[in-house]
Design a protein that fits this description.
about 200 residues, 11 helices, alpha+beta, two-stranded antiparallel sheet
């Protein structure tokens, strides 16, 4: 019996490759490239622009001057060509205004770095935390969870496979934060059943 491509758990439609595919960020290789490559900023959920504004005093000191200037002139979020609310990018580059670099050229999220240091109440946009899963809200009230494949994350798919870490396992913390313990428990049970099938085992 084939694994269905979409599995419904509660009010979420989950793409089955989130359960079967492997993924684990390999920061040593990519150096945070997802924050500096792309034609649009990180998608923002309702209320996240306000969270960025409310916590600006905590993380702005780590931002680059160009990033702070864009926030001063354009605000904490912009609307992209698709009509979606996203984080602004630094003109002339593709980097998110909320990113910064260490002396070795590694990119990091200033918002999350301050959150880890105990400053501020906002960790980072959900779209960043849940990556490589993208969430779409459907007209019928359901949420669609799909796996996004980006060539710059090829090292993450390889690392996940080498270390036998499935996408849903790698994203346990944000999935629970966004959808709850019960959702993740059921997701895990379905994943275990799916991955016991011939051809899907670890």
């Amino acid at each position: 019996m084939d694994v269905p491509s979409i599995i419904q758990i509660g009010d979420c439609l989950v793409s089955s490759d989130i359960l079967t595919e492997y993924f684990a960020c390999d920061y040593k290789v990519c150096k945070g490239a997802c924050c500096v490559i792309g034609d649009s900023g990180a998608p923002l959920d309702e209320g996240e622009e306000k969270s960025l504004r409310d916590n600006y005093g905590s993380y702005s000191c780590l931002m680059g001057e160009k990033g702070r200037e864009i926030v001063r002139t354009s605000g904490f979020a912009v609307t992209d060509s698709d009509g979606d609310l996203v984080t602004p990018l630094v003109p002339g580059s593709e980097e998110c205004v909320y990113s910064s670099f260490d002396s070795d050229g590694n990119c990091f999220c200033t918002v999350e770095r301050c959150w880890f240091a105990g400053h501020g109440t906002f960790r980072k946009p959900v779209s960043c935390w849940l990556y490589p899963v993208r969430v779409s809200r459907l007209g019928n009230g359901l949420a669609a969870l799909n796996l996004h494949r980006w060539e710059i994350c090829g090292c993450a798919f390889r690392k996940g496979r080498n270390e036998k870490i499935r996408v849903y396992e790698f994203l346990k913390e944000p999935l629970i934060a966004c959808f709850g313990e019960d959702f993740y428990q059921e997701l895990s049970e379905v994943a275990e059943a799916v991955n016991r099938r011939p051809g899907n085992g670890k």
